[in-house]
């Protein structure tokens, strides 16, 4: 009886530790998303299929559905490529940021975020120390990325989700191909998986 009790107690401690480290991890990912975007993600939501969303304000149903469509497209193309890992909605966290511009250079609706130029410094993307990005990976494990809030052209949201997701699926399933395609400064874009 005493041993049984010790066993249960041990399990409880393991569970508490697990939750604590998950929360610490999630806090670190949130802090990174806020550092990169300069936004505060105060609203938590879930897509109908179970992906986690953090946003600067309550995301519209159209945004949430578009995220699910993008993940569905991602999972089907990943399966076609023989990948099996990370193909479930609940493993993904999507940050929905305030756009830093809503139109691209040619005047098309294109809500994007400005981020530090880093490896894109001096390339055609460089706007003077920063670049406009449609989406960006925040963490690979747990899997998280950021896109901008859209008020129309939700097909673009689905595409961006699929494209950022490609990096994460490759990281989880095909590390060599991930390394070859993770950085677009040397050319090569999306879709990666066909
Ligand atoms: Zn990319």
Task: Provide a quick synopsis of the model.
The chain is built from four helices and eight strands; from the N terminus they run αββαββββββαα. The protein has helices at residues 2-37, 61-80, 154-173, 175-181; strands at 43-46, 52-55, 92-97, 101-103, 109-116, 130-133, 135-140, 143-148. The protein starts with a helix and ends in a 13-residue tail after the last helix.
Write up this protein.
There is one protein chain. The protein is of the alpha/beta class and 194 residues long. It has one domain (2-186). It has four helices and eight strands; from the N terminus they run αββαββββββαα. The strands form two sheets. The protein has a five-stranded mixed beta sheet, with helices on both faces. Strands 4-5-6 form a three-stranded antiparallel beta sheet, with no helix packed on it. A hairpin with a 2-residue loop joins strand 7 and strand 8. Helix 2 (61-80) crosses helix 3 (154-173) and helix 3 crosses helix 4. The model has no long low-confidence stretch (mean pLDDT 91). The structure holds zinc ion. The site of zinc ion has 4 residues, from helix 3.
How many strand units?
8
SSE order in H/E notation?
HEEHEEEEEEHH
The biggest sheet amounts to:
5 strands, mixed
Rg, nearest Å: 19 Å
Instruction: Give a list of the ligands.
Output: zinc ion
Helix segment tally: 4
Helix content: 40-55%
Provide the β-strand percentage band.
Answer: 15-25%
The dominant shape is: globular
Low-confidence sequence ranges: none
Backbone structural class: alpha/beta
Number of domains: 1
> What integer is the average pLDDT?
91
